[in-house]
Design brief:
The complex is a heterodimer. By secondary structure, chain A is α+β, with helices and mostly antiparallel strands. Chain A is 23% helix and 29% strand. Chain A contains 2 helices and 19 strands. In chain A, the strands form 6 sheets. In chain A, strands 5, 6, 10, 14, 15, 16 and 17 form a 7-stranded antiparallel β-sheet that branches. In chain A, helix 1 runs antiparallel to helix 2. Chain A starts with a helix and ends with a helix. Chain B is an alpha+beta fold. Chain B folds into 2 domains: 121 residues, no CATH class; 120 residues, no CATH class. Chain B is 24% helix and 29% strand. Chain B is built from 2 helices and 20 strands. In chain B, strands 7, 8, 11, 15, 16, 17 and 18 form a 7-stranded antiparallel β-sheet that branches. In chain B, strand 16 and strand 17 form a beta hairpin. In chain B, helix 1 packs antiparallel against helix 2. Chain B starts with a helix and ends in a 6-residue tail after the last helix. The chains are: A alpha+beta, B alpha+beta. The interface between A and B is large, with 61 and 65 residues.
């Protein structure tokens, strides 16, 4: 009896989720290395005996992480870099486990360690000797600095990693990702070695959110919401008619 | 008169089933690869009415004279699927695929094969090409497809390659609409083998739902009014019956 209300309600909930996801994406339009989320209605397969009588409206809303690269945004800081392909660089988390990131805004901490997001060390770590200044990174990921005598010295190279299924990585915030059973095997290398592209230096990867796309989706979600609300009220009216059949 | 009540009831029941289907179509307006349902209403066979014993006639004659024909209402004859194309939306994702004709073949973990136009594919941990629920997408020989970690190109005829090197060929099968059974909103099963076709795959696109919002909403309004009209008729018949039942009361 309440399939029309159920289907309309699922449509309303789904449209609400679409709008929530759009809000999340648009809020992060300037977040470095942000990966947008796409929400779509899911038509899951089912082998119910009588599929024509088991309509469920929108069964669920799937959220897919879109790992496409954002454009590199110049900031002219010599130690910053942007990754152009689908690779990540590795960092060491506070509990010694490996985390991955694309947010290449490196810095030097008070101990001379080259650190990434949240002050985490690179894996393997790169350390500036005492008295070094003007740290920089080049397009193949080599970090160098002027030593105490004023001579530029190479200190190490940032390694990069490619995952078979980057969508399977677990997002843990601060632009960091952790490996899971779903992310698959890794391919290791360094930028510019033929397997991986060179880096863009003096820049950071921008957000991959496309504002025009998000607003188009917002309009669609709004109209879908209105249509489902109309369906809901019509179903409600019909139920009222049915219950008032005999005066 | 009781017949009239049942006729109205059949119309309301048919309207109810119809709006059931319309609501589902509307709710799935943004489901990728969704194919909407349409319904065909049909009237029940006309019933021949005959009198029991026509007058005058010998008592033992029991001749049945035909009085006339009456319709006994309507019912929803069948729900069928509209396989018209949804619009293609450009998404730019490597493994979003859209089809012009035919369906992708996907295999559930238990081996059952489904057919779908929902081309949102990805890689699983092994690099196999899977749907968003982890069902394996099949190649032309019915085997699973394993992709390298790097970006691949999908040609319109289903050939998957990377840097000129061929990796696999996607299976695209076409069916006559009658051969497909709905199994969920965007998935179908078939007892027949289907015809392998090639051509028309677009990488970086998704086929949207083919729900026609205008059609569904106007049908919904028409159904609502039909429901209301039949309810009025039923109420009138009920009131008339009431009157008839009151005929025998004394001093009414």
């Amino acid at each position: 009896m309440t399939t029309i209300l159920g289907a309309a309600a699922s449509g309303l909930a789904h449209s609400q989720q679409l709008v929530d996801v759009i809000g999340h994406n648009v809020a992060n339009i300037n977040t470095a290395a942000f990966k947008r989320i796409r929400a779509l209605g899911e038509g899951a397969p089912s082998t119910a005996q009588e599929p024509a009588t088991s309509r469920m409206g929108v069964a669920l809303t799937t959220l897919d992480l879109i790992p496409a690269a954002g454009a590199a945004v110049q900031d002219n800081v010599p130690l910053h870099f942007a990754i152009l392909d689908d690779a990540f660089f590795r960092l060491r988390d506070v509990d010694e486990s490996a985390v991955y990131s694309r947010f290449g805004a490196l810095d030097v901490d008070s101990a001379g360690n080259v650190v990434g997001p949240g002050g985490r060390l690179l894996e393997p770590p790169i350390v500036l000797p005492e008295g070094s200044t003007a740290a920089a990174i080049d397009t193949v990921g080599t970090v160098s600095a002027l030593n105490a005598e004023g001579v530029r010295e190479d200190l190490g190279q940032v390694a990069v990693v490619r995952f078979v299924n980057p969508v399977g990585l677990e997002e843990i915030g601060e632009g960091l990702y952790r490996e899971t059973g779903n992310s698959g095997a890794t391919i290791e290398g360094v930028p510019g070695d033929g397997v991986f592209q060179t880096l863009v230096t003096g820049a950071v990867e921008g957000s991959n959110v496309d504002l025009a796309d998000e607003f188009a989706n917002l309009i669609v979600a709004q109209r879908a919401y209105l249509a489902c609300a109309k369906t809901f009220s019509i179903g409600d009216e019909m139920l009222a008619i049915a219950t008032d059949l005999t005066q | 008169m009781i017949k009239g009540i049942y006729t109205s009831f059949t119309a309301m029941e048919a309207a109810w089933q119809y709006q059931d289907m319309l609501a589902n179509n509307i709710a799935n307006a943004t489901t990728a690869g969704f194919k909407r349902e349409v319904a065909a209403q049909q009237s029940f066979a006309d019933v021949l009415l005959s009198q029991q014993t026509p007058v005058p006639a010998p008592i033992g004659a029991r001749i049945q004279a035909v009085v006339g024909q009456i319709g006994t209402g309507t019912f929803v004859a069948e729900f069928s699927t509209d396989f018209g194309d949804g619009t293609f939306q450009a998404t730019g994702n490597e493994l979003d695929l859209a089809l012009n004709d035919g369906f992708f073949a996907v295999e559930a973990p238990d081996g059952e094969v489904f057919y779908t136009r929902d081309g949102r594919f990805g890689r699983d941990a092994n690099g196999d090409l899977v749907t968003s629920h982890g069902y394996y997408v099949l190649d032309a020989d019915g085997a699973r497809i394993t992709l390298p970690a790097e970006t691949v190109t999908v040609a319109p005829d289903g050939a998957i390659s990377r840097a000129g090197e061929s990796i696999a060929a996607l299976q695209v099968v076409d069916f006559a609409p009658a051969q497909l059974t709905r199994a969920g909103e965007a998935y179908f099963t078939s007892a027949d083998a289907g015809m392998l076709i090639s051509g028309g795959i677009r990488q970086g696109y998704l086929e949207a739902s083919n729900t026609s919002m205008v059609e569904e909403l106007t049908s919904l309004l028409a159904v609502q009014r039909t429901f209301q009209a039949n309810q009025t008729l039923l109420a009138t018949l009920d009131a008339t019956l009431n009157q008839a039942a009151a005929l025998g009361t004394l001093g009414a």
